[in-house]
Design brief:
By secondary structure, the protein is mainly β. It has a single domain, classed as Porin. Strands 1-3-4-5-6-7-8-9 form an eight-stranded antiparallel barrel. Strand 3 and strand 4 form a beta hairpin. It starts with a helix and ends with a strand. Keywords: Signal.
């Protein structure tokens, strides 16, 4: 009876230790190269010249390892997106601040590199603009794809492209897109 109890305790402790190793938490931050596209950017009376903006993102990650070659990585990020518009020599910046929740499926290509694919839901927190466009939507849905390079066991760098699938503004066909370069630390 003592052996069975001892074996059960050892198996339970080993299982708990394996579960703790399967989930890693971390922090990441980086640069966004964001832009907006769509047919409603200019009107028939005013036509805007549009350029991308450089902004930032930062937040928390959790990597949940399911098998040796596959993991799920949900993230909670603050990300700024938008574009710069120019009309008659006057420049206007439309910057949108989102809480973004990407859920990435990570496919390991080897011990250091993984392919990351998944959906992203974003909720508008702030809108800083000095141009009178249509109001921004409070929710945006997108698709994300990228690569992660594990520099060490805990340090990583990522490159990712996020394409907005829903309109970023009410009553207009304007969508966000962003290229993200990140560095992070898992513990």
């Amino acid at each position: 009876m003592k052996r069975i109890l001892l074996a059960t305790i050892v198996l339970f402790a080993a299982s708990a230790n394996m579960q703790a190793q399967a989930i890693k938490f971390g922090l990441k931050a980086g640069l966004n190269y964001a832009n907006q596209s769509g047919s409603d950017i200019g009107t028939s009376l005013v036509d805007y010249k549009k350029e991308a903006i450089t902004s930032y993102h930062a937040g928390l990650i959790a990597e949940i390892k399911l098998t040796d070659g596959f993991a799920i990585q949900p993230e909670l990020l603050y990300s700024t997106q938008g574009a710069t518009y120019e009309n008659a020599g006057e420049e206007f910046k439309n910057e949108l601040g989102y809480i973004s929740i990407p859920v990435m499926a990570k496919f390991s290509l080897n011990n250091s590199i993984s392919l990351d694919l998944g959906p992203q839901a974003s909720f508008l927190l702030s809108e800083r603009k000095n141009v009178d466009f249509k109001e921004a939507e409070t929710f945006e849905f997108g698709a994300a794809a990228g690569l992660t390079l594990n520099v060490t066991k805990n340090l990583f760098i990522q490159g990712r492209y996020v394409l907005g699938l829903t309109e970023a503004t009410k009553d207009a066909e304007v969508k966000n897109s962003v290229v993200q370069l990140s560095a992070g630390f898992k513990f």
